[in-house]
Amino acid sequence: MELPVWLHPTAAGLSFAAAAVAAGAPIFSDGLRALRLRRMVPRLREVALARTAHGMAHARGTVVLESPLFSPLSRVPCAGFVLEVRGVGTPVARAIDVFRPFRISSGGVTARVPAGKVRWLLSETATREVGPEQPLTQNLAALLEGVPEALWLRRSRATLRLTERALLEGVECHVVGHLSDAAQAEAAERVDLARTGTDDAQVAAAGAPGRAFAVSRTAGRAAFAGAPAFDLRIDPGEALGYLLVSDRPPEARHLSVPVIRVAGLALGPLLSLAGLLYLVLAADRLREVEWR
pTM for this one? Predict the structure, then answer.
């Protein structure tokens, strides 16, 4: 049976088919997470920070910094910031974000929040307009140096409007994510290193709860790392992959999940199936060519 012309294998077609097969699983996983989130969000309630808290929840507490960081405009200690750069009278705009892990504390309980894979909802903390002749501070110049839009606006002698949104130290912070006991989570991830007894090599062995070792390969020394300095950990979680940080109580619209993401439940398998069918047809076509 002759294949349609558009099904004849080409290098581009094979590349797209392989990409479709590889993309199908992540798209399906994202759709599954979106479906779980849509079911979970209406039941989400705020919980108090407690050592027994676990699972997906909405928690709040006071921001405690782990490392020094200062906001670019207001120059106050913060856990991170978003700097919006816009040209006055132009449609050109860009946002720069810098965040570090931080902690929230409430009632004597502390929870650590990572900086990656987070949706940030922050209020405006400062704004400034910088004219074409006005010099930039060293900190601002370093931030804008890696932003092509900002450099183009400066060369075009446009006025920059800078808007800062920072998560300041000591403010009340709301976090929606997966809560887990820090000590148990750390113990589950730890791996003790033990010597084989035949040489200076190290091998991985089962982790022991409450202990962590940093081992030198050459000297074979182990340094006791100790327990974490916080009680809880709030992260996106494997099942939902969702973490929101806000300096105000999040509204329902902030927690809503677009329906289009749920479409990945069907789109992912269809992409993989289409890619596989194309690869199978391409293999059959190549065998026919070899037989001739």
Answer: 0.70
